[in-house]
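Tokens as discussed.
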């Protein structure tokens, strides 16, 4: 099958039309490589004035075929290497034949699509695609544990220079055509496909010969090559800077940097082969398999509504009520108003509600001053938020979210006050992070319309929302909640009710395990560093300071009372005595200015970075207490994995995708793992069980292997959604 249609127009210009058969998008794979190679062969035998790359799809080019890459193993590495080099050779032949080549970018050009566009001498982009969405460009491969393998690193580095190219390669930063124009990567932006084609033809006529800047004899790379004094100073420290971010757990950024530097020290064709070798190595790595599986396949399933009830019409929230204008309520208000939702932000006083709106004003004022937001959009967003102390303003809301303190009586009170103003179709949601939704719904006259929407702080930056279904939550309620979360641009996971649900419940094991180790006398620095080296963004002691030790104490007391009321036994955690000791010392966390860490303005000089409290050594640490670094890492990784399996066992979790995505985006489980359950998969269930049994024997009952895990290992199963 042919993915590239060869057509010649009346101007003697060859149009290479990208149109993968039976597919919604163009993909860079064996079929495309064969098609492009055949087109190049035909070009070499043809008399033509120039070439235009254009797409018959609604997007320009989607990138590499991840199905092929995901299934590629080391034994297939040679075939992949040959395919990639054949593709590059075809692209090089097009750009070096001396005839002008134009890329007409009609929609998203990401990954391989942007690499193909870079092989053209002139790039024209639409401002908006066929769906009236802004065109997006870039090389996001690093976010999937890969690197651009179609010449993207080599061309971007030579066109922009090492330092300027770094954000787009090492971070996978995407950009709009306007930014591309500023960088010199886009030559022209037009408003219509007709104008784009006309401009392409005119440019070819006006430029009968063309050469890439990096193919011009004597050309210089912006910022210089590695031996240039400025660059030579940066190169030795760049790997250390990457390691500081990745802690050595993500090989892709390091490989990309290596290609950038090595590729500049040889000719471009040799550089292309260097890139191919690193690309194939990453494709075959377990980290890439983990990240592709989770951030591509499982994420796309969530985006497609895998956990959303079927056969229920999608709806948009037009008017949203928020009860409580504190940090969480204010963040939800901003995130919703950004998506043109009318927001009623209610608090006990108008002054408090206006303080909540000021949170949004502060954000948009900064964006306006930096030129990232127009005055019209700035004003529109603020006009979307109505601060009030009057519950009657909630009338007409499609959805109301309470974001008040974690107090049952208070939540019951605001629920009933709001419901008196709402229609019978309106949905009520609680932003609680720990309290069971079924219990909170008892305050509602319509428990079938009651659901949990657990946002993460800060709301405007955190991409995940955990949707919690109570025992009586209806499918219609879940569907609207799912639609709303996606409407505001966040990722939903759906779980069933339990104390702490999924994310808070598992996160607590991470914090408590770190605190327990400190109580055992293990060095605080060793605990925090082990977390960093495992790939956690924050150590357990630092994150506990963020949420506050008093909150842990309050949650524990409420849990004990609830379990006593239910006739259940509360099992005390070894971390609790350490928490109590810290609270008694008035070291309650970051907001108090003192916790496991010391903070500027209270115990440290103004402007100082936080540092571990020196008193930890005398209060908890034992000088003769030694423990293997891997043991600390495993305790932090395994305790969360075991609790996640328990959540599956208890039907709190109902899908592997929600577990994996939720663990990374919600609680900071290391990205390289692909998520908690994928961590167990890659370890191997028998090996995981063996290690967990060791931890159970040495650390206690909390590491006991769940029955579900033993059964799966016995049946030789892995964690995957059917």
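Sequence:
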């Amino acid at each position: 099958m042919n993915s590239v249609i060869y057509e010649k127009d009346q101007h003697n210009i060859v149009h290479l039309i990208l149109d993968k058969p039976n597919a919604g998008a163009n993909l860079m794979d064996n079929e495309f490589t064969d098609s492009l190679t055949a087109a190049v062969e035909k070009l070499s035998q043809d008399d033509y004035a120039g070439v235009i790359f254009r797409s018959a799809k609604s997007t320009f080019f989607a990138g590499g075929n991840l199905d092929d890459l995901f299934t590629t193993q080391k034994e297939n590495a040679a075939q992949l290497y040959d395919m990639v080099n054949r593709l590059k050779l075809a692209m090089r032949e097009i750009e070096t034949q001396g005839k002008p080549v134009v890329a007409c970018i009609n929609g998203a050009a990401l990954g391989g699509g942007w690499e193909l566009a870079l092989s053209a001498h002139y790039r024209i982009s639409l401002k908006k695609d066929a769906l009236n969405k802004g065109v997006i460009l870039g090389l996001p491969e690093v976010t999937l544990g890969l690197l651009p393998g179609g010449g993207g690193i080599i061309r971007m580095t030579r066109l922009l220079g090492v330092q300027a190219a770094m954000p787009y390669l090492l971070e996978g930063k995407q950009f709009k055509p306007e930014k591309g124009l500023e960088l010199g990567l886009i030559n022209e932006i037009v408003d219509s496909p007709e104008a784009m084609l006309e401009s392409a033809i005119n440019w070819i006529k006006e430029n009968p010969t063309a050469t890439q800047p990096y193919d011009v004899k004597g050309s210089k790379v912006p910022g210089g090559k590695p031996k240039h004094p400025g660059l030579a100073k940066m190169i030795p420290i760049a790997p250390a800077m990457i390691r500081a971010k990745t802690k050595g757990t993500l090989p892709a950024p390091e490989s990309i940097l290596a290609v950038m530097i090595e590729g500049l020290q040889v000719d471009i064709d040799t550089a292309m082969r260097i890139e191919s070798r690193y690309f194939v190595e990453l494709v075959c790595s377990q980290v890439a398999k983990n990240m592709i599986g989770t951030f591509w396949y499982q994420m796309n399933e969530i985006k497609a509504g895998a956990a959303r009830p079927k056969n229920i019409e999608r709806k948009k929230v037009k008017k949203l009520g928020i009860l409580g204008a504190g940090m969480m309520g204010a963040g939800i208000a901003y995130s919703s108003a950004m998506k043109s939702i009318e927001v009623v932000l209610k608090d006990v006083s108008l002054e408090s509600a206006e303080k909540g709106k000021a949170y949004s004003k502060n954000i948009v004022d900064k964006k306006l001053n930096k030129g990232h937001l127009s005055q019209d959009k700035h004003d529109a967003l603020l006009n979307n938020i109505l601060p009030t102390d009057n519950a009657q303003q909630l009338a007409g809301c499609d959805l109301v979210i309470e974001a008040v303190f974690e107090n049952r009586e208070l939540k019951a009170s605001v629920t009933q006050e709001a419901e008196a103003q709402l229609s019978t179709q309106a949905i009520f949601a609680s932003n609680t992070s720990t309290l069971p939704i079924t219990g909170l719904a008892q305050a509602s006259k319509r428990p079938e319309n009651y659901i949990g929407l657990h946002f993460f702080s800060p709301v405007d930056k955190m991409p995940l929302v955990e949707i919690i279904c109570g025992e009586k939550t209806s499918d219609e309620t879940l569907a609207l909640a799912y639609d709303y979360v996606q409407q505001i641009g966040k990722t939903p996971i759906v779980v069933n009710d339990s104390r702490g649900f999924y994310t808070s419940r598992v996160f607590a094991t991470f914090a408590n395990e770190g605190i327990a180790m400190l109580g055992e006398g293990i060095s605080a620095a060793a605990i925090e560093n082990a977390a960093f080296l495992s790939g956690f963004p924050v150590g357990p002691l630092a994150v506990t300071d963020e949420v506050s030790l008093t909150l842990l104490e309050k949650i524990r007391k409420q849990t004990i009372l609830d379990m006593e009321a239910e006739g259940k036994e509360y099992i005390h955690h070894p971390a609790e005595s350490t928490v109590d000791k810290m609270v008694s010392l008035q070291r309650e966390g970051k907001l108090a200015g003192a916790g496991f860490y010391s903070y500027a303005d209270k115990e440290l000089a103004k402007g100082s970075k936080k540092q571990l409290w020196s008193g930890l050594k005398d209060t908890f640490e034992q000088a003769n207490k030694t423990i293997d670094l891997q043991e600390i890492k495993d305790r932090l990784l395994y305790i969360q994995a075991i609790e996640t399996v328990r959540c599956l066992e208890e039907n709190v979790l109902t899908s592997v995708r929600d577990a994996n995505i939720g663990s990374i985006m919600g609680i900071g489980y290391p990205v390289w793992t692909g998520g908690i359950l994928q961590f167990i998969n890659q370890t191997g269930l028998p090996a995981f069980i063996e290690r967990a049994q060791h931890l159970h024997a040495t650390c206690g009952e909390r590491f006991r292997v769940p029955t579900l895990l033993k059964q799966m290992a016995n049946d030789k199963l892995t964690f995957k959604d059917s």
